[in-house]
Amino acid sequence: MTDSGSVTDNGSWLIKGVTIPASGKPSGKPSEKQGDVPTSILLSGGSITAIGPDLDHPGARTIDADGLIALPGLVDLHTHLREPGREDAETVETGTAAAALGGYTAVHAMANTDPVADTAGVVEQVWRLGRAAGHCDVQPVGAVTVGLNGARLAELGTMADSAARVRVFSDDGRCVSDPLLMRRALEYVKAFDGVIAQHAQDPRLTEGAQLNEGEMSARLGLAGWPAVAEEAVIARDCLLAAHVGSALHVCHVSTAGSAEIIRWAKSKGWQVTAEVTPHHLLLTDELAAGYDPVFKVNPPLRTEADVAGLRRALADGTIDCVATDHAPHPVEAKESEWAEAAFGMTGLETALRVVQRAMVDTGLLDWAGVADRMSVRPARIGRLTGHGIPLAPGAPGHVTLYDPAAPAEAVTTAGASKSRNTPFAGMELPGRVVATFLRGVPTVLDGKLA
Ligand SMILES: [Zn+2]
Questions:
Q1: What pLDDT digit, counting tens, does each position of 152-185 carry?
Q2: Cα 443 to middle of ligand 1, angstroms
Q3: Is the per-residue pLDDT at 256 higher than 80?
Q4: Which sequence positions are flagged as catalytic?
Q5: How many domains does the chain have?
Q6: Considering all CA atoms of the chain, what is the largest pairwise distance in Å, rounded to the nearest integer?
Q7: Residues 309, 357: one domain?
């Protein structure tokens, strides 16, 4: 909290008339399910101190949360904060402000900064910048290989022992394509319960690739990016994780086939988890028809059938969680010819609304399921203690208040992120993040930074 004019103390907050979604059959409407009775939440001293219908607490500030749902603060496993090195695209301050506005109380910051987060020094710098910004907790991800060069393992143990306590390692943006290095990395992190998060992309099969390989890439004359380039690496890595007995996390699964492979790996009892991005749950490669590079992303947007397969996999738990892959870029990097434009989309400020559209309004997931896929499971995968804890007395005061009945409004490019490359601009999405609490203190109130 940097705004001295707003509430910055550890005073108590009483959230009145809110609905805490209970597990049950997806109905799309939380108020129609049994157990979803409006209640009140008391936040005090950084924690949830009470939940009940008739709470009162003298001196507490009150929020009328009639019609709102409360979720445990969202956790993003995959955020590019760009600092250090690309502060023209994003900073820890602006990226975490965007995260808070999206309902997040913790984000994992990817390692492909400049310098790369491949030493204790850099991960501690990112961690400290996150604490200074104060909008949400920042958990640095460490690089798997020195300089993301895919040649030599970075000092994973040193990063794990640092003040940042790194547990997730990834060369994201690039694939650890060497199977021997991948094996060594998986072996190394076992000692401290770490996880290797793989950006699955066979580099040889995707040389020059621009767009999902299919009808659309053929029609546009853009080099195709075959599904097999992702699926082959995922299959290999699942086998390696099983062989080594270590934990693999698959970043941004984009094809129905990838989900099938993960389903198979999980059926074997292997330690494999996976994430899907909001954009892969909603958008297809058809959008590339106008050659607008705002739709250029890695991995690429796929087909209608892939979107359906990814939604099913998230609904049945094969894919564990939603992760944004928030990838801000300055205007000049996105407003060029398709082939020259940078890969990536922003996503923190719209993720929950996209998930409502793709998963809840379609009846595939209820709000308790959303809490599981966007808070509980990503915190567990990221080894983040103190986040992803279901709302109950004694739990940390990380709470997201969301209005699922807010009328659909067109997404604008204005927001806290320094970059404007949202693929949802102009699209009408339901819902609104009303407030976000971090350790009982609001980071967002009435949809604005507190
Ligand atoms: Zn990636």
A1: 999 999 999 999 999 999 999 999 999 999 999 9
A2: 28
A3: yes
A4: 325
A5: 2
A6: 67
A7: yes
